[in-house]
Amino acid sequence: MEENKFYDDIVGSKDAPYINSLAKQGASFSDFHGTTHPSQGNYVALYSGSTHGVADDDCPHDFSADNLGHQLLGSGHSFIGYSEDLPSAGSKDCGDDGDSGYARKHNGWVDFANTPASSNLGFDRFPSDYGKLPTVSFVTPNLDNDMHDGSVKQGDSWLKKNLDGYVQWAKTHNSALMLTWDEDDGDDSDNQIATMVVGDHVQPGAKSKAHYNHYSLLRTLEDMYGLAPLGKAASAKPVTDIWNTSVAPRKGKGVAPAAAPARPPAPAPAGKAAGGAADRAAGGAADSAADLTDPHKKDIAMQLVSSAENSSLDWKAQYTYVEDIGDGRGYTGGIVGFCSGTGDMLDLVQLYTQREPGNPLAAYLPALRKVNGSDSHAGLGSGFVSAWHTAASDPAFQQAQNDERDRVYFTPSVDRAKQDGLHALGQFSYYDAMVMHGPGTDPVSFGGIRATAMKHARTPAQGGDEKTYLNAFLDARKAAMLTEAAHDDTSRVDTEQRVFLAAGNLGLNPPLSWKTYGDPYTIAR
Predict the structure, then answer these.
(1) Active site (catalytic) residues
(2) Domains held by the chain: number
(3) Residue 1 domain flag
């Protein structure tokens, strides 16, 4: 977030050559607006969906309301705000408003008690290995470098020096930079500001004429990660007109193409568990005490996925699995099918290397970075496959696969299902969909599938019938599968999940019998 400049002070300015180059590399907006005056309320609004009545730059302001960081952390994702010249990690200091360069009024996340101190860091902690960035980061330069006290030229130079490396990396790593300002340099109600987005999935040179504001950015981020929109973000229009939707769905962390927003879940009626007594009384009723996070239920989920992905219930034998299955995602490997073309295999090997430098796969990190986003094997080949097999016997690599499975797929999908009022079967349906289609929001990723289902049926959390909603979700899932030749066998839906649903087994309780690809399987207990 930059500071206090009219739109025309930035766009086309000879003092901002780097910023204007970002508009050419990515997208720019000609009708984007700040929320309020003065500065502080804009930071609070972008982070939480409301100014919470902040109409000054006084310090401190303290809130307990929900916010983007709290949402991300609560759904298995991560958030860090990086402030240049922050006195110390986690500091709640007001700053000297110029003497130190840091001012708390430009740090919206520190005002919220439910954003942990570990999410409030100095910019000196911004990683040089961009693969170690959290899911979402906010960056605030100091008062000189954000154009508040310094010049446009100074701010432009700071951005190029400190963030261009990330920008170039983001273009091929399912990530993006959103650059905006807090407000214009007046006190008018129009409050037009410059804004640019550059990175993967962004149409180079796109020029949006749609009317957007800070709440639109917040809504866009929330939609990307399947989060319920907060405050005024719920009625704001998400940014939908700059994304390159011709690219294949991708499963890596970071910014993915935005789609039509899913309707946020409503709370279940007071005194009534989501799903209702009728669901619990059905044959094979849901066991509310054992959701998919129960170790036994989680193991069942792993076996079900393995039957579809590997034609075996022995999911722990799949740490060593790796091959190109011809689906346009390069190599697929491991317990949930990490892919070299979608970013999650790269994230896995980076985590493994962070924990165990010099491992057999570490030498292939440069090649994995280059092939990310494609089906290429360049720099990989038989040597990589052999190294994968060797690494698979290392407990550290096995644990890295478990941890990445949980971080990227299991925890976000199960948390989302719980918010939607679903029991273990529905939680598994979400998880299986996220494993295959990725956590994005385009029509054939998990978020888009869920949004399609919600157009046809209400979730239990919205007062709907659980079986009806799950049938709608599986209909949408099957339609998404049929868009890809590699997934035209829909038996993991038709003769697996629908079998359990038809039996009323919302709790996913054994014994379980099903077929995938025509092969029969049973979990007795």
Answers:
(1) 309, 327
(2) 2
(3) no
